[in-house]
Design brief:
- The complex is a heterodimer.
- By secondary structure, chain A is an alpha+beta fold.
- Helix content of chain A is about 30%, strand content about 25%.
- Chain A is built from 18 helices and 28 strands.
- In chain A, the strands form 7 sheets. Chain A has a 7-stranded mixed beta sheet with strand order 3-5-1-12-9-10-11, sandwiched between helices. In chain A, strands 7-15-14-13-8-28 form a 6-stranded mixed beta sheet, sandwiched between helices. In chain A, strands 16-23-24-27 form a 4-stranded mixed beta sheet, with helices on both faces.
- Chain A is globular.
- The model of chain A has no long low-confidence stretch (mean pLDDT about 95).
- Chain B has helices spanning about 20-30, 85-95, 105-115, 125, 140-145, and strands at about 1-5, 10-15, 50, 55, 70.
- A 5-stranded mixed beta sheet of chain B has the order 2-1-5-3-4, with helices on both faces.
- Chain B starts with a strand and ends in a 9-residue tail after the last helix.
- The chains are: A alpha+beta, B alpha+beta.
- Chains A and B meet through helix 1 and helix 16 of A and helix 2, helix 3, helix 4 and helix 5 of B.
């Protein structure tokens, strides 16, 4: 069963239009909410005026003064308010909430709320933020720093001083919009007497659960969060649903418990919600003349936006992936995340790693050119292998097999396409990288996730987990794991929709952790359940097992089998020194791409793309390939098309007309090859997969463009105008 | 205005503002929530329906323009007995649907193309107006090919 590709459990509902997303669900007497937001990046709120033109007495209106609990969005630090009441930190910051039964009237009313704000000078770059703090105008702490990490192994300074060749470079990546096709949306019913229930599109029901109690002043047992069918997340629905759920709940609370729906339109969603952190990474690398990497000094800066949100954790993952897939004994990584007056940046597939992997991979390309060594040979010479140690001190027990994967990727790509006279420039590039599976360091231990199985009276098995299926196919994979372990039909297993009143806290649906970590808990729970049902009798499977499970319940024996996370043996991490086993497991990958660049328009396009990866055992080949293909397409978008244009820190091209996603016409079929090396502590041998494919496309395409043109572009997206400028600066492209 | 529409084989009389978006008429007046709104400006294709057999973005069609038209939404694609249309079945089996929000529009656009291949040179071109953020389109190409009885995914 594991390793097969049954039709996804929600497939029929989704292809027939029967799957009900939040905006599809009927709620009797629902009010439509709207968020009134700032249009200045920084200032002080002096007042709010409600201009004539709508019957304001019919509206539900909420300002900070109406919040029954704490005006704080609970996440990592208590710095972000649900509604600004004094200090304004970014464009699109929420100030007032309104609701009315007439959706059209709400839209009209939204134009009739005037926010009186005394503007203050904002900071929009990392340099300006640091400089502004130095003059005493810090907006966070004393220095506008959200977080710093320092990772050191060996002596990078000494090794650089001794290096035969030192190569330096700086690399920049832009913001990126998650662009789930279903916008953010929730419905809330809230009152002091009955507590609060929120239905919505989200990745992490328990994050929302944790946030709603404090803002409403309710104890946890009066908070209920239910995930509805979710139309994509990619990180964008990791932490932001805390915001929109709180807003809808506040409106419902003020409305005496009437249901309130908040569903953003695309413009608001792109303007106001989180995006991938912009980054700048400067690398100094020491090499021998033969190309042995002897020293790395890496400085990583992330633009965090106006509030802390998840930025420290994003910076952590950026730091832990910054040295790439290469052996180096003398490494220093200095990472910092800085406040700017931009809407807060947040989780997006890859979570910091794509930024630093772009930098290290482009730097290997640069170094290869300085050293006069083929970029592939330089990589091969320095690939991590068994016994090598990562910058945090973690030693690899097994050879990841990057050399073999590189061979396979190149073989799949085949001979280089022949150039035609006057035709496009051709280039080929690769990226080689890893991605840590699950939460960083001691994160999984702290989460202490739980997941359970329950036997229904008819002997069918119900899966109880807070993990959300946001399209990746979690419910199908969970069904496979449990049915496979118990030897019963897939149809005899049902995944209960995540509802915090019913399912235990399995941790958030993030960090490529769901199949590996939560799937493993369910597999172990299935072992427990099977032992209990069989009770020393002969093993059974299929309908016979289901019948025995039903009899087990009828006899009044335990129905509920829960497991809690335990770290794999030998894994340890020290948060204070940032040393140890950063991740319990790593997935490895090689991307290889052929790119063409039009000589006239300078538009770069992907002509062929091969993704080879080692993700442990593949549980469901179609879903797994779907993760790779989708992640690669997002990476291609980030590399070539998706340009978040900022003004005063906020996105000005916040619509699909001029924020360009890859379309079916731009996209060649992505070719996916799996190497399967079963992982001892994942269900059926699986490791994480979801984020890995986001890491490779940008540097692989960057390498291919460098190959085609002889110039290396240090900044994405590789827009035609940037390619044109680079080609001109280099005195024209290759013939 | 009074609007007469033939939706999924059944005639309906609906009272609606002439400028109301066909998308909202379908979702709010007819309860056909299988048609999704992705962007509201005709860029993403999530709201695609067949209007007199041709794919249109229902967020761009005012109700008055649909007067007396024949409309097929995703709910009208399966057979009366509930059996999935081959394109629906292929999307489900081949991994063409992940989060599912683009899927109804994508399937209708694909069905329209397979009924009239002259409308686009390739599956990539045929579906260029329907954005998917999950699949990278690879499995969508495979699903369309499977529904057409072809083994090869084709591509852009």
């Amino acid at each position: 069963m594991i390793g097969e590709s049954p039709t996804r459990t929600d497939g029929a509902a989704k292809v027939s239009g029967r799957a009900l997303y939040i905006d599809d669900l009927p709620f009797e007497g629902v009010l439509h909410g709207k968020t009134i937001r700032t249009t200045v990046p920084r200032g002080r709120l002096r007042g709010v005026r409600f201009l004539p033109g709508v019957p304001w007495d019919e509206f539900v209106v909420v300002t900070a003064a109406d919040i029954p609990g704490q005006n704080v969005i609970v996440l990592i630090e208590p710095d972000q308010p649900y509604l600004a009441h004094d200090v304004i930190r970014h464009v699109a910051e929420p100030v007032v909430l309104i609701a009315h039964a007439d959706k059209g009237l709400v839209e009209k009313a939204a134009t009739l709320v005037a926010l009186d704000i005394d503007p203050l000078p904002g900071v929009f770059t990392i340099e300006d933020s640091v400089a502004s703090a130095a003059t005493g105008d810090a907006q966070h702490g004393a220095d506008n720093m959200f977080k710093r990490y320092h990772v050191a192994r060996g002596d990078a300074a000494a090794a650089l001083a001794k290096a035969e060749v030192v190569v330096e470079g700086t690399y920049e990546t832009g913001a990126q919009e998650q662009l789930y096709i279903e916008t953010q949306g929730v419905v809330a019913i809230a009152s002091a007497e009955k507590g609060v229930t929120v239905w919505g599109s989200m990745q992490c029901p328990y994050y929302v659960h944790k946030a709603l109690g404090p803002v409403l002043g309710l104890p946890p047992e009066k908070v209920r969060v239910i995930q509805t069918v979710t139309g994509g997340g990619f990180g964008g629905k990791e932490e932001y649903p805390n915001v929109i759920a709180g807003h809808a709940a506040l409106l419902s609370w003020k409305a005496g418990g009437r249901p309130v729906k908040l569903v953003y339109d695309r413009l608001e969603d792109m303007w106001a919600t989180t995006k991938r952190h912009p980054s700048r990474t400067t690398i100094r690398a020491g090499f021998t003349r033969d190309g042995d990497l002897t020293a790395l000094h890496i400085a990583v800066d992330l633009d965090g936006g106006a509030y802390v949100t998840l930025t420290p954790v994003v910076l952590s993952r950026a730091t832990l992936h910054a040295a790439g897939a290469y052996r180096c004994d003398d490494v220093t990584i200095e990472a910092r995340a800085v406040l700017t007056n931009a809407p807060p940046y947040g989780a997006f597939r890859g979570f910091g790693a794509p930024q630093t992997i772009f930098a290290i991979e482009m730097h290997m390309e640069r170094a290869a050119r300085v050293l006069g060594i083929d970029p592939l040979d330089l990589r091969r010479r320095n690939f991590l292998s068994a016994g090598d140690t990562l910058p945090t001190g973690q030693t690899l027990a097994e050879d990841p097999g990057l050399g073999t994967m590189l061979d396979e990727a190149l073989a799949a790509l085949g001979p280089r396409p022949a150039a035609t006279p006057g035709g496009p420039w051709h280039g080929r590039g690769v990226a080689t990288f890893f991605h840590g599976s699950g939460f960083t360091g001691s994160g999984e231990v702290k989460l202490a996730s739980r997941a359970a199985l329950e036997i229904a009276p008819d002997g069918r098995i119900r899966v109880l987990a807070a993990s959300t299926d946001i399209g990746q196919g979690t419910n199908t994979v969970f069904t496979q794991i449990v049915a496979g372990r118990l030897g019963i039909a897939l149809a005899a297993v049902e995944v209960v929709p995540p509802d915090t009143d019913i399912v235990p806290d399995s941790g958030p649906t993030v960090a490529s952790r769901t199949s590996m970590v939560v799937g493993e808990l369910l597999d172990r729970a299935a072992v427990d359940l099977k032992m209990a049902v069989e009770a020393g009798g002969p093993p059974s499977s299929g309908p016979e097992f289901v019948a025995r499970a039903a009899a087990h319940v009828a006899a009044g024996k335990p129905r509920h089998y829960e497991r809690q996370y335990e770290p794999p043996p030998g894994v340890s991490w020290d948060d204070a020194t940032y040393t140890g086993d950063a991740y319990a497991a790593y997935a490895w990958s090689v991307h290889a791409v052929d790119v063409t660049i039009d000589r006239l328009t300078h538009q770069a396009e992907v002509a062929d793309f091969v993704a080879v990866q080692e993700v442990g055992r593949v549980l469901h080949p179609i879903l797994a390939a779907g993760q790779i293909e989708g992640g690669v397409a997002q990476g291609i978008g980030w590399a070539l098309y998706e340009d978040v244009v900022l003004k005063d820190g906020a996105m000005v091209n916040h619509q699909l007309t001029n924020y360009i996603l890859p379309t079916a016409a731009d996209t060649v079929p992505i070719r996916t090859i799996f190497h399967e090396r079963p992982y001892a502590h994942g269900p059926g041998g699986a490791k994480g997969i979801g984020e890995l494919p986001m890491d490779g496309p940008a540097p692989a395409i960057g390498a291919a463009i460098a190959d085609a043109l002889g110039v290396l572009l240090p900044r994405i997206p590789f827009l035609p105008e940037r390619i044109l400028v680079a080609v001109d600066a280099a005195g024209g492209g290759k013939p | 205005m009074k609007l007469i529409l033939k939706i999924n084989g059944a005639s309906r009389a609906i009272e609606a503002h002439p400028a109301k978006r066909l998308l909202d008429v379908l979702r709010e007046e007819c309860g056909l929530t299988g048609t999704k709104e992705g962007c509201g400006e005709g860029e993403c294709g999530a709201c695609t329906v067949l209007l007199d057999g041709r794919p249109v973005m229902s967020c761009l069609v005012p109700a008055c323009q649909a007067q007396e038209a024949t409309i097929t939404t995703i709910e009208g694609l399966a057979a009366r007995d509930g059996a999935l249309h081959p394109m629906q079945a292929a999307f489900a089996h081949e991994g063409g649907a992940q989060c599912g929000i683009c899927t109804p529009g994508m399937i209708l656009a694909a069905v329209a193309w397979t009924r009239d291949l002259a409308t686009a040179d390739s599956v990539g071109e045929a579906l260029a107006g329907n954005l998917c953020r999950c699949t990278g389109y690879t499995k969508i190409f495979a699903a369309v090919a499977a529904a057409r009885g072809q083994g090869d995914g084709g591509g852009a």
